[in-house]
Amino acid sequence: MEACNLCPRQCNIDRTKGVGYCKVGAAFKIGRIMKHMWEEPCISGDNGSGAVFFAGCNMGCIYCQNDKLSKGLVGKEYTADELVEEILKLQDMGCNNINFVTPSHYADRLPEVIIKARDKGLTIPIVYNTSSYESVESLRKLEGLVDIYLPDLKYLDADGAKKYSNAINYPGIARLALDEMVRQIGHCEFTNEGIMKKGVLVRHLVLPGRVEESKRVIDYLYTRYGDSIYISIMNQYTPYGKAKDDNILCRPITEDEYDEVVEHAVFIGVENGFIQEGETCSESFIPEFTSE
Ligand code: SF4
């Protein structure tokens, strides 16, 4: 943290005194800790996922739905011990797992939290819910501690990654990060009730006007990892923030666009997957981040 190079932004900044690209210092800053019912069925199930929404972010997506949180403008600071107590409360509430959301900029501090929580009786799986803009070195610190990786694969084209997330090197970085996650976890395992115990579930958000890119993403995932991972194809893109002014991202995706991507996945043989149905594109699905 005194010369932070934790993620591919390589800010080399002292986060005990200031902030880098991710906009948060060394202390855990958290926007909300809650039982989350709207992750994939194998993550949320009927009991919910114990989500910890970290403030700050190392991406720069123009369509970010949580920009106050990602810019570190809201959130409350927690010590590692306080976070451990919150995690144990989520377990007591019956959550299926502990779900660290946007944790990349705390990757080197989380092992301490996970180990302490396990020592104090945490038995449910740890989910690491990430954009995949991660260094392999950081991910290796989590080996044996994270049970489920829930990464995005947002883009394979550098132009899209630069234009929409200010991360021109995202495709190469994300590929290496996914390789590392799959290497650590291997195959997926579920309870008898269908709740994931360990595994890698890769999410891809279909963006408007980019059906061919989405098909390339699905092709890449299935060719490289086959049935060792699950793929979640998401239709919930909502124009938000600066994306409302973008000539391509200013609208939701159409049903035809989403169906074309899903049909392609089925056509190439993807069986381990999740799709979304109905009205998931709505600002009303975006949680409030009030530090409460
Ligand atoms: S974690 Fe934050 S400060 Fe550290 S390199 Fe990444 S963006 Fe920069």
Looking at this protein, list some descriptive labels.
10-stranded mixed beta sheet; TIM Barrel; 17% strand; 292 residues; 9 helices; alpha/beta
CATH C-level class is: Alpha Beta
Strand content: 15-25%
How many strand units?
A: 10
Bound molecules: iron/sulfur cluster
The biggest beta sheet, please? 10 strands, mixed
What structural class should be given to the helix and strand makeup?
Answer: alpha/beta
Low-confidence runs of at least 5 consecutive residues: none
Counted up, domains total 1
Instruction: Report the span from N to C terminus.
Output: 26 Å
| Secondary-structure element series | EHEHEHEHEHEHHEEHEHE
CATH domain topology = TIM Barrel
Q: Give the name of the CATH superfamily.
A: Aldolase class I
Q: Helical region count?
A: 9
Radius of gyration, taken over Cα atoms and rounded to an integer in Å: 18 Å
Give the overall silhouette: globular
The CATH architecture term is: Alpha-Beta Barrel
Q: Could you explain the architecture of this structure?
A:
This protein is an alpha/beta fold and 292 residues long. It has one domain: Aldolase class I (TIM Barrel). The protein is 30% helix and 17% strand. Strands 1, 2, 3, 4, 5, 6, 7, 8, 9 and 10 form a ten-stranded mixed β-sheet that branches. Helix 8 links the parallel strand 8 (196-205) and strand 9. The two termini are 26 Å apart. The model has no long low-confidence stretch (mean pLDDT 94). Bound molecules: iron/sulfur cluster. Iron/sulfur cluster binds at residues 4-7, 9-11, 13, 15, 20-22, 58, 105.
